[in-house]
Automatic annotation (TrEMBL):
GO terms for molecular function: enoyl-[acyl-carrier-protein] reductase (NADH) activity; NAD binding; trans-2-enoyl-CoA reductase (NADH) activity. Pfam families: Eno-Rase_FAD_bd (PF07055), Eno-Rase_NADH_b (PF12242), Enoyl_reductase (PF12241). Residues 326-388 form the Enoyl reductase FAD binding domain. It is an enzyme of class 1 (oxidoreductase). GO terms for biological process: fatty acid biosynthetic process. The keyword NAD applies. Residues 82-318 form the Trans-2-enoyl-CoA reductase catalytic domain. The keyword Lipid biosynthesis applies. Keywords: Fatty acid biosynthesis, Fatty acid metabolism, Lipid biosynthesis, Lipid metabolism, NAD, Oxidoreductase. This is Enoyl-[acyl-carrier-protein] reductase [NADH]. The active site is at Y236 (proton donor). It catalyses: a 2,3-saturated acyl-[ACP] + NAD(+) = a (2E)-enoyl-[ACP] + NADH + H(+); a 2,3-saturated acyl-CoA + NAD(+) = a (2E)-enoyl-CoA + NADH + H(+).
Length: 400
């Protein structure tokens, strides 16, 4: 069928398998062009492996370090008259490329928050790999059903205390307007957001993996966080999601204790703001990203998820002397180029000047839009979108 993008707000309802395949190939080529990661991981579990930072982590492990990978995600294959999700097509593409390169790659599709998916993953690792030496935790979800209590928690993206007014952009139309976001009123919103995006599920995974004996001596685990500039603090770092990130970051100490007898280490990496399915849902952030891209591209420091994760592996997690550089709070920082003073000063200046009229000139809104569509396999260079595409692509390791 001919597949075209169909959007509703920040969601794209369709996805293109050929575009997804090309995007995955582009990421693989980038990782290969950087050369082998010395002392890189060999057997890797990626939780949240189908899109964004998780997909790039899986690609970097496989093609930068010849690692066998198990990927866990929650995606949908095509069904009558409906396309599969972008993450499904990405995973089909990843496995195809990995298998062709002679690399082990299997995937598990289901709710990573559940005990059942943890059990299935452990069984697969036991059967095929024995143990893993790296666990990447890269889930982003609006909901979590708690495996022990059965309670369904929903996260919210709200400021805490005061309402927050700032500029935002509708990236489809390019209209810049003021948005006011009311603070949390329901006192359950904060613990619910922490329950979804905080560190508890990461801890549950690591406890179960350890208990089953599938973590190798010297195992490392990493989860991803974000800080960003002061202008987004009310909606991000000081908002409900920031509380969840504080909780995730605090989990590092708990996991370091848990992994001590395995000589294992746990890390949070603070990554750069990038266009992903999750970040496009946060008000204000898309406008910030459009300005950030403009400034960083002009300076030659712009990175996408694959550049970020390749740098995380090569220059942080697997350094030649084995030391992992951390900030004063014990976190890995690959948002260093985003947070550079000159970058932030320029973004700040542009932020104040931005209007609907000058948006396309002073921001990289065009780049934002293209990347948004790229996430779903659209507007990928080299793909003929007038051509019939087969939407019934399978992920080879998942039985239909
Ligand atoms: P994303 O939406 O691209 O990816 C989310 C992944 O989680 C997908 O693979 C999806 O299938 C999986 N997933 C969601 N719910 C699941 C469930 N119930 N069971 C199994 N899999 C599930 O998100 P992303 O932007 O790559 O975010 C990953 C992490 O990186 C998050 O912790 C996010 O906060 C963090 N981060 C994002 C940015 C950014 O700008 N996008 C910046 C810094 C840090």
């Amino acid at each position: 069928m001919i597949i075209q993008p169909r959007t509703r707000g920040f969601i794209c309802l369709t996805a293109h398998p050929d575009g997804a395949l090309q995007s995955v190939k582009n990421q693989i080529e980038y990782v290969k062009s950087k050369g082998a990661i010395k002392n890189g991981p060999k057997k890797v579990l990626v939780i949240g492996a189908s899109t964004g930072f998780g997909l790039s982590s899986r690609i970097t492990a496989a093609f930068g370090s010849d690692a066998a990978t198990v990927g866990v995600f929650f995606e949908k294959p095509a069904s009558e008259g409906k396309m599969g999700t972008a993450g499904w097509y990405n995973s089909a593409a990843f496995e195809k490329e990995a298998h062709e390169a002679g690399l082990y790659a299997k995937s598990i599709n289901g709710d990573a928050f559940s005990d059942d998916i943890k059990k299935q993953t452990i069984e697969l690792i036991k059967k095929d790999l024995g143990q893993v030496d790296l666990v990447v935790y890269s889930l982003a979800s609006p909901r979590r059903t708690h495996p022990k209590t059965g309670v369904a928690h929903s996260s919210v993206l709200k400021p805490i205390g005061n309402s927050y007014t700032n500029k935002t952009v509708d990236f489809h139309t390019g209209v810049v307007s003021d948005v006011t976001i009311a603070p949390v009123e329901n006192e359950e919103d904060i613990p619910n957001t922490v329950a979804v995006m905080g560190g508890e599920d990461w801890k549950f995974w690591m406890e179960d993996l350890k208990e089953a004996g599938v973590l190798a001596d010297g195992v490392q685990t990493v989860a991803y966080s974000y800080i960003g500039p002061e202008l987004t603090f009310p909606i991000y770092r000081n908002g409900t999601i920031g509380q969840a990130k504080n909780d995730l970051e605090a989990t590092v100490t708990v996991l370091n204790d848990l992994l001590k007898d395995l000589n294992g280490k746990s890390y949070v990496s603070v990554n750069k703001a990038l266009v992903t399915q999750s970040s496009s849902a946060i008000p204000v952030v898309p406008l910030y990203i459009s300005l950030l891209y403009k400034v960083m591209k002009a300076k030659g420091t712009h990175e996408g998820t694959i550049e970020q994760i390749q740098r995380l592996f090569a220059d942080r997690l697997y350094t030649e002397n084995g030391e992992v550089p951390l900030d004063e709070a014990g976190r890995i920082r690959v948002d260093d180029w985003e947070m550079a003073e000159d970058v932030q000063a320029e973004v700040d200046k542009l932020w104040k000047e931005t209007t609907t009229e000058n948006l396309s000139e002073i921001s990289d809104i065009a780049g934002y839009r293209k990347e948004f569509f790229n996430l779903f396999g659209f507007e990928v260079d080299g793909i003929d979108y007038e051509k019939d595409a087969n939407e019934n692509v399978q992920v080879p390791s998942i039985e239909a």
